[in-house]
Amino acid sequence: MASGGVWPTDVTGGMGAAEFTGQPTLNTFGGQFTTFQLAPNQSVVVEIGDLLQETGVAGTTDELQYGQSYYFTAFGLDENGSPASDLTVTVSGLTTSSTNCTYTQGYWKNHEELWPVTSVTLGSVVYTAAQADIIFDESVSGNGLVSLAHQLIAAKLNIANGADPTAAAAAIAAADALIGALVVPPIGAGYLHPSLTSTLTQSLDDFNNGVTGPGHCGNVPAEPKTWGGIKALYR
């Protein structure tokens, strides 16, 4: 690591930073976490690949580029937004490639021309590819149905694209059963509380990011700004 392993005091070129100070709605761990403003000695798992869709986060929230090494560290802020703790242990990783793999929802959102299907079924409702892409653009805004739909669309596209479905089969079936006849915004006005969807959303997110299943694809024509499958524990 550059600088002798010492993190600079200010953000420099090639670095990014994000502040977790608001209310998450994508990953609430069954309603256990409703704010990123943690109590003393409390911790929360933050998934880098989810920041594009997560609420309550400001700063660098794009995706990682393929074939790059990344380093992450974190520190706590006080009530005035000033640093109030030492840096955590540095977490590092390299974005890699594989075959029989999965892409994130961000990849599918930005590569509709590569979708292997012309329609996607969510619950009992069939959506055209154009409608599903519109759903990808919908802000979560506290609606668990939207966040679940984002991950479910990505999982079904990955499977249609050749990824082994074994690790996600149960979560997909449960997600479809939970959604039922609800129509996902903005196509419809369906709603599910995040506490009902967060566990399934997390399971599908793990599949799409390569934490479970065949692994995350890396050899793709990534967007200039791309988070990959790296996940980090922030305390």
How do the helices and strands line up, and which of them pair or pack?
Elements lengths: L17 E3 L23 E3 L10 E3 L9 E4 L18 E4 L10 H6 L8 E4 L2 E4 H9 L6 H17 L8 H11 L14 H16 L22 E3 L1
Antiparallel strand pairs: 1-3, 2-8, 4-5, 6-7
Structure description:
By secondary structure, the protein is of the alpha+beta class. Helices cover 25% and strands 12% of the residues. It has helices at residues 105-110, 129-137, 144-160, 169-179, 194-209; strands at 18-20, 44-46, 57-59, 69-72, 91-94, 119-122, 125-128, 232-234. A two-stranded antiparallel ribbon has the order 1-3. Strands 2-8 form a two-stranded antiparallel ribbon. A hairpin with a 2-residue loop joins strand 6 and strand 7 (125-128). The protein is globular and about 50 Å long. The two termini are 21 Å apart.
CA-based shape: globular
Strand content: 5-15%
Content-based structural category: alpha+beta
Helix content: 25-40%
Strand tally is 8
* Helix-strand pattern: EEEEEHEEHHHHE
| Strand order, sheet with most strands | 1-3
Please give the radius of gyration in angstroms.
18 Å
Q: Main sheet? A: 2 strands, antiparallel
**Low-pLDDT windows of residues:** 219-235
Mean pLDDT rating: 82
Contiguous helical run count: 5
What distance separates the N and C termini?
21 Å
Give a brief description.
The chain is 25% helix and 12% strand. It is an alpha+beta fold. It is globular, with a radius of gyration of 18 Å.
Descriptive labels:
235 residues; alpha+beta; two-stranded antiparallel ribbon; 5 helices; 8 strands; 25% helix; globular
